[in-house]
Amino acid sequence: MHRCLGPPEAGAGNTVIFRIQHHFVTETGDTIFIDPATATSVPIGPGLFAILSYPVHIKGGTGKFAGATGDFTISAKVLLPNAPDTTGGHHSFPLYRTSLLWRIG
Prior knowledge:
Layout: E1 2-4, E2 9-10, E3 16-22, E4 24-25, E5 31-34, E6 37-45, E7 48-53, E8 55-61, E9 69-79, E10 90-101
Antiparallel strand pairs: 1-3, 2-3, 3-6, 4-5, 5-8, 6-7, 7-9, 8-9, 9-10
């Protein structure tokens, strides 16, 4: 799960910046702690954005994710039918590139 940390912001050139906080919790209540992330995008249609850069950093967790560290990048599209309001928006994540480490048990 994630949420936008405020409305999208204008970036350099024609880019649009999204600030996002991810929340990962398993069915057993274990969590993965994630730093706030910044996604840089470009508009490709009315309310539609292509993500150019979206690095995410894992900084620990609880339970089986205690001590987890790593980074991953996300390639995605974001649809904001009420742009710039993020209410009602959704995204697709067709590709994750990961480098994750954690101790299990």
